[in-house]
Structure formats: C-alpha cells, structure tokens
Specification:
The chain has about 375 residues and is mainly alpha-helical. The chain has 13 helices and nine strands. The strands form four sheets. The chain has a three-stranded antiparallel sheet with strand order 2-1-9. Strands 3-4 form a two-stranded antiparallel ribbon. The chain is globular, with a radius of gyration of 19 Å. This is Broad-specificity ulvan lyase N-terminal domain-containing protein.
Length: about 375
Amino acid sequence: MKHWVQLARDQLGVGRGAPQAINAHLEAAAQWICRAQAATPDDGVAHSYDIRANKWLASYPETTGYIIPTLYDYAQHFNKPQYREAARRMAQWEVDVQLPEGGVRAGTMDAHVITPTIFNTGQVLFGLARAAKETNDDRFLKALKRAADWLVKVQDEDGCWRQFQSPFTTTSVAAYNTRTAFGLSRAFEVIPDERYLLAADRNIAWALSTAGENDWFPGNCLTRNSDDSALTHTIAYSIRGLLEVGVVLEKSQYLEHALRMAKAVALAQREDGSLPGYLTPDWQGKTSWTCVTGNSQMAINWFRLARETGESLLVQHAIAANRHNMGLQDLSTDNVNIYGAIKGSHPINGGYMTWRFPNWAAKFFMDALMLEALGESVENIG
C-alpha cells in the first residue's frame, strides 16, 4: 500500500517539497546511508530499500565502495566525525569480501552468481584508496593494490575491458568503464604505479575511438537498446571518467570531449531542473520520468567542468538539478526507511530502480550538494 501512496504523491506533484538548507539535506542523506548499513547483517550498505516489497536488499560491494569517500568528505568538511567510523567499517568489509584474484563480485551479497566484475572493482578502488589515506592501515593498501593490479592484468591491449562484464547487464563492452579508469587514477594517488595511469589512459583513448561525430558513445548503457539510447546515469559515469582522467593526465582533448557531452546533456534539461531518464544518440530526451541519480551525477559533472574549464554557465544547470532533487528528498515522513533517501526514478514507478531508493542515489546527491556548498575549497570529491 505504501508504494501506491508514494506513486500517487509523485503523480499529483505533492511528492515534492520546498528545498531546505543544504546542510539539512546532507545530514538526512548521511543518516539514511548509515541506516542502510545497519539494515544488513554485515558492514556493507544495503543495495536499496524497496518500498513495494517493504524490505532492504542485501549489501552491495560496488556502491559501498564509492560511498566510503563520500562519508569521509562529509565528516571532514562538515565537522561530522561520527561518519568516519562508518566509512572505515565499510572499507574493512570490502577487504573481507574481496575475491581471491583481487576483483570485486558482481551484484549483491545474496546473488547466486559469484564472479569478479570490472566496473564493480573499479568503484571499490575509490573506497580502498581513501581509507588507506585516512587510516594508514596496510590492509587497505594491500587490497587496493590487488584490485588495481587485477584490473591492469585483465585489460585488453586496446584499452577496453571486454572480459568480466557484469552478468547482470546485457552490454558486451561499456564506455561507462571510463569511471573505472578514473578509479585507477585514484589508486595511483596512493600507490604511484605508472601502470595504473597507463591503463586509465588506454581506456579513455579506446572509448574516444568509439565515439560518433556528435560525441555519443555507442552501447553506453546497462542494457542493449534497439535505438542505442542510454541512461543519464551511465552517460554521466562516462563523462566523469573522461573529465577526471583528463585532469590527472593533463590531456585537454579528454576534457574537451567531456565538456561537449556535458553541454549536450544540458540542452535536454527541463525547466524544473530534471533530465529525461534516457537520452537518444542525438542527445534528445526519450522518457517523461527522470533518473534521479543521473540528475545528481550530472550536477557533479557540471560543477567540476565549470571549475576545470571556466565554463561558468554550467553551474546554473548543476544548481537547478540539485534543487530538483532536494525537492524529492522526503524530510517530513515518519517512515525511517525512506526519510532522507533518494529514489531511483521520479515518479517512483519510472524505468530506473523502480520502487526503490538505491544507496548510490544518496551518495551522488551528497557529492553534488557538497560541491555546491563548498565550491573551490573541496578537492577530489567522490
């Protein structure tokens, strides 16, 4: 019944509230992430809360990995030291569940298929690298090296990762693995092994070699779509990888491509600050619903590109996306399972994480708000 009430609220427009102070939204999201961690029998973070089934899903290694730096950033920049311990426990859990070859498993901890996966491993690099820097604990350093070494080992010569794609996606190669390249650049900050940067560079170069004349990456989605449309979620992943590896390697062509893509996405932004959940290869919106995670991810990209390229008009798009998502975060409900959470789609029955509040939606929401609140004073946000 609760899911039908949520849907009715969304469709009638009463599911959106007036944005409050950024600090209030950040604290509510951070508290929800910790409730998602407490909802599991381990120290990982629950994949999501399913409002239709009224249950928390099992821990998800991939996204727990990149939640870790978000909590460290929040603890550091907003004087919230209690979140450091939650982040450390997540990182220790990642070490405990790392597969023998160094990779990170696909899916949640209750998935029947246990196999190392490229993208998931790339995302856990963020957490292991940050935990190693924050704690000087050799366990995190060793796990980071094992994961990064495995990614280098299984990369194809042309820079693409074709082996070990997730069994829970239907694409054979993924341009959004540029975010895995980004993870390797973070690993390099802690372990200065040039192989990590070389592998990151090769992957970005491969991705760019596949791009169309209008900068679109083919097959850049979690599923194969007949019209080659892609989620704003995965489009934003690919842009972030180009951007951040370009900054590290000082390669202007990577930044310029990321900037063109980000501007193309900005043209699809609606008056209320949201983006269509899917874009077609001519950068046109395909859906009426919005992927809330994608909105936050693009806000991050727009903030970062404005800083790195001087394209200050992108900040307006980022703030508009933040305001839209702030209005969707429920800060009045007495349901602790969704208080402070961020839904996958709006309306909640949309085509991405339908009926669910995924943990990574809260993570990217926090990152985008911290970039807005802190501006130039924040470095290396997740």
